[in-house]
Amino acid sequence: xxxPTPAGDELRHRTWDxxxxxxxxxxxxxxxxxxxxxHRVLLLDRHGFPRDKVCGDGLIADTLGALERLTxxxxxxxxxxxxxxxxIYSASRHRIEIDGDFLTLRRRDLDAxxxxxxxxxxxxxxxxxxADVQPDAEGVTKSLRxxxxxxFPAALLGRLVVIPYYPLSDEMISNIVRLQLGRIADRVVExxxxxxxxxxxxxxxxxxxxxxxxSGGRMIDTILTNTVLPAISREFLTRTMTGLVLxxxxxxxxxxxxxxxxxxxxxxxxxxxx
Length: 274
Ligand SMILES: Cc1cc2nc3c(=O)[nH]c(=O)nc-3n(C[C@H](O)[C@H](O)[C@H](O)COP(=O)(O)OP(=O)(O)OC[C@H]3O[C@@H](n4cnc5c(N)ncnc54)[C@H](O)[C@@H]3O)c2cc1C
Description:
Layout: H1 8-12, E1 18-21, H2 25-36, E2 41-45, E3 58-59, H3 61-69, H4 73-79, E4 81-89, E5 95-104, H5 107-120, E6 124-127, H6 137-151, H7 154-158, H8 170-192, E7 196-198, H9 200-209, H10 218-241, E8 244-254, E9 257-266, H11 268-271
Parallel strand pairs: 1-2, 2-6, 7-8
Antiparallel strand pairs: 3-5, 4-5, 8-9
Helix pairs in contact: 2-5, 8-9
The chain binds flavin-adenine dinucleotide.
């Protein structure tokens, strides 16, 4: 049983009351109940359904009750194996036998039935991985109002504009790092007429060192100004003093630290034997 999945484009422009992340039994059950209560529900799972899952596949009385409230029990019973007794083993191999109504059904089938029920109740199901969750600025501003009113008079808050602050994601920080390294490359070309290159290992190392999210992009500047630029400048000076010139600089990372490759040649004066 494959729950219907709309195309991504169709979803992008819609507004949802609830987005349920994960279409396992818990998420799909919640989506079904929310859908039947009239909410606009998007049910997302990173796997396309039907999908299997490691599980003992046993359904006990509590689960059967939940499936009944979902009116999914007949569909489950139709596919499941029914048992009148189950044995539970303790870690020390003691066995308890329990009589009752038990079913076993592969998760591939169980989860698809429950997800299908959610779709029948109005939820829209789609495949997608949720990588990050960010509240919208309007929602953050509204939820900040109450705590701010406990500290500041309403008259003062009326004269202020609250601007919510979002921490930078790793991707945004990587982009800022590339911009800053690009600026260094421009400066090196402008002042020394040699290329400055860097690779993704260097970018990743800088991002991994930006541990204080509150500092935003400022830490990148600090890392470059206090670590990378002095190392390059030192090499420029040393080469100049020893009669060599740099013809290129390459920045990378190895063993958790920056790795520099300096290409050089004898200075023109030295080559001419002056
Ligand atoms: C070995 C084993 C045996 C078990 N045997 C039994 C048993 O016999 N009977 C029983 O009742 N229980 C059993 N369980 C427990 C049962 O598997 C869990 O209780 C049940 O799966 C929990 O359901 P859920 O909906 O909360 O989460 P899950 O079933 O884990 O579903 C979570 C869903 O979320 C999706 N997801 C996760 N992250 C994201 C993301 N970022 N973006 C999009 N989608 C995402 C996943 O793809 C997954 O489909 C067993 C568990 C194990 C490990």
